[in-house]
Write a structure and sequence with these properties.
globular
């Protein structure tokens, strides 16, 4: 449950400075969004998946849901808001490195409310994955899920009002490096994860891009290096990491194996343009893991 977006992906020779001008080497309108991409990644790996978010009644709204529907993701709970514009992103991708800058806009009318999701849907799930775009709604949903014994996963990239209350309801917080640095108040990433663990998470994870991921599980620290790959576009790699993380936990893997598997899927997703350009199937992921070593 969370964000979707239609991204305008712009490939340039290098990321531009302010005041500069650069020619576009490639341009494409491609689907993305944090949770929508994670849901699609999980579906590609074989999970029976449902996605809930909000779209406008514009053409973009139909576009962002199309790949989910094609993959068999249940989108019946998606909220369609009359007069609103579906979330948009502008992605600047460095052609040499695959690194990107994301600019985004979300219509306030797309905010999710408690009445937008049935309790029975949450209670019948095997896992719930959320982002922090609507923290009050997410906190309510997480509470319902936890009361039903459903593990809750969270994608957190920016601290903000209501996020700490949400963390109290999360089993697996997976945060971006920027979130950890802010949440840890300038101290080390390990300090940030230690503070996250005080909220009760079973395993707390920070994603580090090309440096892989770091996790705290109980008293154990787990460093998981990334896979070296020629990246075309890193957009969505963190979202794929999270969708694969959910899948791997539900397969019963230990935390180190979960991180290794999620890192592999994230690396594979960087081989194509856009957040959802190259999401592996289970067979493709297993073959990659069998033939590649991280680091």
């Amino acid at each position: 449950m969370g964000q979707n977006a239609l991204d305008r992906v712009c490939v340039v020779d290098r990321l531009p400075p302010f005041g500069g001008k650069l020619a576009l080497r490639e341009y494409a309108e491609l689907t993305g969004g944090q949770v929508a991409t994670a849901a699609l990644a999980a579906a590609r790996l074989g999970l029976r998946t449902a996605y809930s978010g909000a779209v406008g009644d514009d053409a973009d709204g139909f576009a962002v849901l199309a790949p989910l529907e094609s993959a068999g993701v249940d989108v019946s709970a998606v909220k369609r808001v009359p007069g609103a514009r579906t979330q948009r992103g502008i992605i600047l991708v460095d052609r040499t490195t695959g690194e990107r800058i994301v600019l985004w806009h979300r219509d306030p009318a797309l905010a999710l409310q408690k009445g937008d999701m049935r309790r029975e849907t949450l209670e019948s799930a095997r896992a719930l994955h959320l982002d922090t775009s609507d923290p009050d709604f997410a906190t309510w949903a997480a509470q319902v899920a936890q009361q039903a014994g459903v593990p809750v996963f969270l994608d957190a990239d920016t601290p903000g009002p209501g996020v700490e209350a949400l963390l109290d309801r999360v089993d697996f917080p997976i945060v971006a490096k920027g979130f950890a640095e802010s949440f840890g108040e300038g101290r080390s990433l390990r300090s940030a994860l230690t503070r996250l663990a005080c909220h009760g998470g079973r395993a707390c994870v920070v994603t580090l891009g090309a440096a892989g991921a770091l996790a705290l599980c109980g008293d154990a620290w787990i460093e998981s290096p990334a896979y070296s790959i020629e990246a075309r576009d890193t957009t969505g790699a963190g979202d794929v990491f999270r969708g694969t993380f959910v899948w791997a936990v539900l397969q019963g893997l230990d935390v180190a194996s979960v991180l290794r598997t999620a890192n592999a899927a994230a690396a594979m997703s960087c081989r194509a343009l856009g957040a959802q350009g190259d999401l592996p199937t289970r067979g493709e992921l297993e073959a990659f893991l069998n033939h590649h070593e991280p680091g």
